[in-house]
Amino acid sequence: MKSLVFLQVEPQLVDGHISYFLGAVGMPGLTALLGVREKGHVTDGANQTMVVSGAAGACGSVAGQIGRVDGCTRVVGICGSDEKCRVLVEDLGFSAAVNYHQGDVATALRESCPNGVDVYFDNVGGPISDAVIAQMNNDGHVILCGQISQYNKDVPYPPPLCDETREALQSKNITRERFMVLNYMEKHEAGIIQLSQWVREGQIKVLETVVNGIENMGVAFCSMMKGGNIGKQIIKISD
């Protein structure tokens, strides 16, 4: 029953911030950590550039910070507002951020990733991911974490790629494998310990959007699905 250990909350790991176990030191954080470590192949000193889509969310915001901690020279986030871009760069230490609602994503990526892209933490799929993969270097790695832009479509998972993207993956020898954090249960305990240590040391900063009152849960959920949250969406029901 080893997997049940992680249901036990130990407040000292997060200096009493219990909500962190729902985000940066919980399943979203583990997904970020194990995704980067198992599928990203980040090598310290290799001058790698990482791009993260959905970068201001609970998982993406942690994934980008882990890429920086693990040695990526540049970490670029893609998100949906200028305020989110500001937070990524000024608060979380991303090298640059791209607002996909403003201008052409491909052009912004070329400016932000002058040496191409080596690692892509993909949370969204669709045209944004096509634009990133088109600028990836040979032998790069796509961490296939989520495809949220495609979930309302009647297609299999992972969703099929356009011909140009599929050709880019093949011709450049880019890996793109489905990733599920639950396939790495044996690494969860060590991951929680590592994440909590980084948080306590300030190497990873935690973003939360907190709404008070369970009666406001529906409004908070709808806001989150429209991109209204920065970091983990939290409903606070008690002190």
UniProtKB/TrEMBL annotation:
Span of domain Alcohol dehydrogenase-like C-terminal: 60-156
The record, for InterPro entries, names:
ADH-like_C, MDR_fam, NAD(P)-bd_dom_sf
Under SUPFAM superfamilies, the record lists: NAD(P)-binding Rossmann-fold domains
Q: What molecular function does GO assign, one term?
A: 15-oxoprostaglandin 13-reductase [NAD(P)+] activity
Q: What is its EC number?
A: 1.3.1.48
| Keyword Oxidoreductase in annotation | yes
One BP term from GO: prostaglandin metabolic process
UniProt KW Coiled coil keyword: no
Key words of the record: Oxidoreductase
* UniProt xrefs under Pfam families: ADH_zinc_N (PF00107)
**Superkingdom of this entry's organism?**
Eukaryota
PANTHER family found in the cross-reference section? PROSTAGLANDIN REDUCTASE (PTHR43205), PROSTAGLANDIN REDUCTASE 2 (PTHR43205:SF5)
> What is this protein's name?
15-oxoprostaglandin 13-reductase
Q: Which organism is it from?
A: Oncorhynchus kisutch (Coho salmon)
